[in-house]
Structures are given as C-alpha cells and as structure tokens.
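Protein 1 of 2
SEQ + STRUCT:
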Amino acid sequence: MIPDKGASLARTSSFWFSIAYKMGLKNHFIYLENGNRMIVRKFNIIEGKVPKGEKNYLVPLEFVMRYYVAGSLNDRIEKGKLDYRNIGFRNKPEYGEKLPEPLFEMTTKFEKTDRLLDEREAMEIAGLLHEDIQDIKEIILKMDERINSEVLKRGLIHADGKKEFALDSERSPVIVDTFGTADEDRFWEKNEYENGNIIENSKEFVRQYYRSIGYYDELMKARFSGANEPPIPALPEDMIDRTSSLYKSLYERITGMKW
C-alpha cells in the first residue's frame, strides 16, 4: 500500500471534475469528503453485453487517447503488432515522439487483462452507437486540451491518458471514475523532453521498476502462454517512500495547489 496515493488520486480527480463541470461536460462528481474520498453519482453495472438503447449505465470500456509514442503503444510498434505507417509515420518512430494525430483507442474493462477493440466490437459489447463513440471522443479531446494547457503552466506535458464513461437517462456521455491523475495519465517533464530526455511522472515510474527486476517479462510470458501469472513482488521501502512522494508532488504540479 502506498501512503497518500488514494488521497492524491481523489484530490486530483476532483480538481479536473470541477473544471469539467465549468466546461459544461457532464460528470458524476458530487463533492470531495475529508480530502481523500470522492462522493459521486452511481450508475448501473450491467453484466455481459449491454442491450441496445440501455440508459443510466457504466460503459464497460476504457477509452485511451494518445499524443506521443509511449507505453504499450511503443511496445506494439517494437514487436511489429502495429504498423507505424497506419498511425501516420513514414519512418519508425522513437520512444517519446509526438504522434502526427491523436490516437483514440478502446479496450475492455471487465476482462482479466485489457484487450484492444475495434469499433464494431466495442459497440457490440457496450451497447453503443457510432454517434455515441464520436461524442465520447470529442469530449476526451476537449478535456485533454484543457489538461495539457493547465499542466504546461507548471512544466509538464500530458502525453496520454484513459477515461471512463457512463450514459445517463438521456444516453448522454458522463465522465466517471478518475482521470488526469498519476494512475490514469502519463505526464513528462517539459524541459527535459525538449532536451531529449523522458522523465516519467506517473505510475510508469513503478512499472519501470518492475521491468528492471524482470517481473514484467515474466508476467508477459505467462499471459502469452496462458500460464498462471506470477505474484507481484512487494515494493521495497525506499520505492514505497519515493512513490508516495511522487503522488503527492504530482498533485501539486498537476493542480497548482498545495498538498
């Protein structure tokens, strides 16, 4: 358990939900309780495929918008699972290179591991129309533009992020869960990036630790072969302390407010 991580996520998300409200973007946030717990509007969770025309439910998908080559996108390009020419590059991009156009992707939410979906399967699983997906995409682009403009003031670049949605009684998209945090989004140091260095300010910091000790490779091999996944090794005390400090400092960097 990382001390103050939950409070950081709740406070950061409440900051963005308040901005979304001012922007006229529907969301489920009601208020922040005791500085570490969000009180939100709940939506129905539907098991299995969602019937067409359903209302007031959590969309069983995760929506990812990418602005730079990083994370699993870079892994797919490196392993040849994604042709970089299909996302606008003439030559193979390097890690951290800006995408010619934002890349919008959808994955499963309730499966054991996130799985990329094409639009047809996403619509089938989640009871969505093409128009619903386009509306969600536009909301994400609008919100991310605001996120990036805010964090640039404090020396950060918003590289990518994921969001979740519900559809309300009018089947209008509602932003839910948490977003714009060190868990859902990737933030880089602007000055370092301009000097050719990538400094990760997100939970990627922890992922890189698990890569360095070989756990990530073991996990991927197990998933590929269908074997049982290896247990996650506990973080050493110094990593716990550093990660806790990162979450608290990122709250301040992202929002401009004191912890």
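Protein 2 of 2
SEQ + STRUCT:
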Amino acid sequence: MEQFVTLTVNGVILGSVFAAFALTLVLIFRATRIINFGQGAMAMFSGFLALRTIEATGSWWLGLLVAIVSGFVIGALVERVIVRPVESGPEINAVIVTLGVFVGFVALAGILFGNQFRGFPGAFSLQGFDLVAITPNDLFKLGAVVVALLVLVVLFQLTSLGLQMRAAAFGQEVARLLGVRVSNMLTLGWALAGAFGALAGVLIASGSPISPNYMDAVVVFGFVAAVLGGLDSFVGAVVGGLVLGLTSTYVSGYVSSALPTLAALAILVVVLLVRPGGLFSSSVARKV
C-alpha cells in the first residue's frame, strides 16, 4: 500500500509536468490552428533567461517574471518574423518552420549558455514531508498548473478577446468581416503561448538540473498528453498529462523502468482508435 501511495503521488507530480507543457500546445493550436514543434525549445530558452536572472539577483520570482515576459516577446517575434511569411502557403510549411525554430533555439542556447548541466533552484523547499514523498516545491507546481488551466479556460470561454482569437483561428475571412483584427490576434496567440510556455519551462526546471536539451523528453510526453486529451481542450491536456504521469510511475514501479514510453504509446494508440479526436475533443473532424 505504501508503494502504491508513493507511486501515485509521484505520478501526479510527473503528470503535472506533462500537463504544463501540453497546455501551451493546446493554447497555440486553439489560437492559430498550428502545432508548434518549437514550443519546447522556446520554453527552454526562457528558462535559461530566468536562471541567469536568478543567479544575478538571487530572486526566483524575478526570474519567473523575466521568463514570462521574454516568452511573450519571443512568441510574438517568432510569429511575425518566421511564421507569418509562410502562413499563406500550404499548412505543412508552418509546421516545418516550427521544427527549424526548435533547432535554432537549442543551438542558440548552447552557444549562449553552454551545454553543461546547471542547477535550477526551486521556488520552495525541496525537502519532502514525513508522511508522503512530496515537497513544497512539488505542491507549488501542482497549484501553478491548476491556476494556468483556470486562466486559459476563462480567457477562451468567457472573454471577448478569447472569442476573437478563436474566430481568427477558425475563419479568418469571416472574422475580418466581423471587425476582428486577425493579424493581431494571431500574433497575440503566439505571444500568449510563448508566455505560458515559459511558465511551463520554469516549473519543469525548478529544482532540477537543466541543459539546452532538458525539455526534450517533456516535449514528447507533452505532445502525447495534448493529443490524448484533444488538441482543442485545456481540461483534456491536464487529464492527458495526469494519465501519462500515473501510467509512467505505475509501469516503472510494478513492471519495468524501461517500459513507460512503450506504455504511453500503447495508451495513445488505443485512445486514437476509439476516439481519433482525443478524449475531450469538442469535435471529431472539421471541414474547410
């Protein structure tokens, strides 16, 4: 029983890490209908900027603020300078460009910050409690993911800005006729995704060693979590992340530490066979 509780707690913590990144993928997809394969590298770069700020000032919270602001700016610049010139072409062009963004930011981080591992301090204590294998820093991560989820749901479901962003993503010509400034909404979508991605990058790095590749494994599981939940569902992203986190720890603890990735693949295949749009997708298919 003690092992089950420990594995469950660890699974929830790990799942929150996957969910944090999956939320940013859903955000960019809902705002622009583009799957951004460069999101992890952009978050990583903001994470390193946060670390530099923390080392220079000693303030973890100032580092978080720098990361979020830099993520916002990076997201807007990537959309304006790199993605926009190819938006009018085939949809695959934008996807390929985001792969280039991934490679570019990883290379740039290696040049500016080095390729060696560096410790990233936690926002709170990394000392676990006596009864459960969880730390105050882990609880902070869980709380931050929940707050991010609530903010995104409110933004897209209950505000005029969210409605305009969704309209710009789904039907640009109709949105323009209704007075929506589509160009600005697309840029804002990328900027917000960059900001929330930076938040995810800092949460994932908190209390762990980081290098320019520290987001790679999270990116893979984050994509799987987003697809499991449905690429247009914020709640689905969190549920998908928790499912993967719990599956990974249970498989590692009861079967073999070499099988979590295979188990995640099996879950993904089964879910997509039963419900191709994901568990929480609002629609199965869309026609242009």
